Predict the structure.
Amino acid sequence: MDQFTQHLKALTDILGPDRVLSAAVDTFGYSYDGSPEALSLAFQPDAVCKCRTTAEVSQVMAYCHRHNIPVTCRGIGSGRSGGAIPVTGGIVLALDEMNRIIEIDHANLMARVQAGVRTKDLADTCLAEGLFYPPDPSSYAYSTIGGNIAENAGGICAVKYGVTADYVMALEVVLADGRVIEVGGKMVKNVTGYNLVGLFIGSEGTLGIITEATLKLLAAPAYKGTAQACFTGIQAACETVSAALEKGLVPAAAELMDQVSIQAAEQFLDFDAPAATTAMVLFDVDADRPEGVLSQLEGLQALAEAHGSTRFLTTTDPAESAALWQVRRKLSSAVAALAPDKVGEDISVPRSALTRVVRDLNAIADRHDLRLAIYGHAGDGNLHPAFLLDLADPDQKKRLDLALDETFRAAVACGGTLSGEHGIGISKKPWIKTALSEEVIQTSLAVKQALDPKGILNPGKIF
């Protein structure tokens, strides 16, 4: 019996024959994620282990640690930076069947869930009980809580409610050698020892396997409203958002769309903008009382009109609000339809630098003769510039590579960084030294060495 067959037999003894996949036709679906370059890389795992319990994850990790087998953890594979791609082969540890909502704790306003629970399922379950789980990445309908934590996912509501890290109270983690640790808890205050919860958040599966999470919940806001503000200049749109925040008028969401994004929405979605519109902001507001919503909408309208808004629509009707937000929810697909290929990125800058970085991004696109759509979370400075081109053309691909390099450097130059919510993975690994000092990188690698001395956890990512 060869070594690979021995490994398969041992893993099958742990999980059973139906949950260890090794045929190429079965493992292909685990060779890519949602990153733009994923399908061109074709890194197939040697096997896929579909775990359902923490005990199974522990046993699989202990075996892989003994035999130096690389392990790439995976939820649904919706990530945008190549974090779930098994670049060195080995095992893909699939946790999508670990999908139980274990507890909704009303007394402490917390939920305890397995890592494979889908974000929307948790949000819907909470809402049915009058509670609110705010993190809402664009992939929330299918992304998993474990993946959200591993990448520290954000979303539309981050401007007011923060990102995933702001809601993680405790974690159950399987270490590289199979040991299981529990960090954090339901207590609101906790300064006992190092903040190991924070250590694992955003670590992209390189330090441990998150199997369960305890998450903070809020009372669901009683009333909501939506506003759509159109402008003839993107600077005016950005300045309206900044002015609102400066005045303490913090919307639940403030989403920016530039001229190319608007053109995509008009061409492929049910949307019409006033003539000469080159930018738009979608706002959501919420409050405990109806007059609180109306007051916020009136305040936003006054600011938008002071900055030259050409149209300002408001609604407190849930159906009308959903219709307005469909434009943003479906925008990525609409933008992608404008060209054979779309390479979407994820940069984060201080909110004060928003206008500057938008100007720099457009200059980069012009310099390299590439079409660019800019949209994203204006309220927290997290933008998604999307270059539109034909990757089959070597010249366009070369110009894209130069443009991406300048994009990341432009973000860092104005006090920003490479990623606000997608993570580094393999997509942005070449630029890590642009954003982090050598001392920070070496400190990070020391942590990695301490927790994963054999380097089997998601190798080839981040650094």
Summary: Residues 71 and 91 are 5 Å apart (CA to CA). The longest strand covers residues 223-231.
